[in-house]
Amino acid sequence: MAIIDAMGHNLDAAVLATVAIGAYRHARRAAVGLADLYMFMDEAIDKQFGPDHFVTAQMVRLNVGTGHLQWVNAGHPAPLLIRDHRVIQALESPGTLPVGFGGDIPQISEQELRRGDRVLFFTDGLIEEHESGGEQFGEERMIDFVERALGRDVQEITRSLSRTLMQERGGITTDDATLFLVEWRGGSADHLANLEM
């Protein structure tokens, strides 16, 4: 999985995101590790755009059989680990420069998930957004909302959080806001690829 947020808000940002996603997909298909995936994307952005452009990103691998979660965080807020309807911790990780800045080989962060754990990945636009002159949405408000909403399935929670954020913004956005909620239930992924004959 990956969350990618290109700098800027114009056509250049769209091209930058396209190159980043293309590099990510190419590296992922080559089955490289997360550190090499980061380095491949970093080199592609630098070669195409030079040192004045960057992409923030989180690259994630989850072993659906064991619940072993690995990630590289390149400029996003720390994801939140949610267990038993409570945000129990931010999954802090060593700092890695955003993609395109020529960062060092990143350190891979790891976490063992328990059955039913959820992890919320999000971009800074989710917590930093505010109406002109108003208060930022903030991580505390987001955590409060997530903890109150956790009885619902992941799709419903993400839709509801997105709607709440839009209401807080007065229906106007000034930054991209991406959220991605993952729930690990244990077992295999066989149910995800049913073939009908």
From TrEMBL:
The answer to whether the entry has keyword Zinc is no
Task: Please name the GO terms that the record assigns under molecular function.
Answer: phosphatase activity
Question: Gene3D superfamilies per the record?
Answer: PPM-type phosphatase domain
Listed InterPro entries:
Bact_Sigma-Reg, PPM-type-like_dom_sf, PPM-type_phosphatase-like_dom
Which controlled-vocabulary keywords does the entry list?
Hydrolase
Pfam families cross-referenced by the UniProt entry: SpoIIE (PF07228)
Indicate whether Hydrolase appears among the record's keywords.
yes
What SUPFAM superfamilies does its record include?
PP2C-like
Q: Which residues form the PPM-type phosphatase domain?
A: 1-184
- Its name, as the record gives it, is Protein serine/threonine phosphatase
Organism, scientific name: Candidatus Protofrankia californiensis
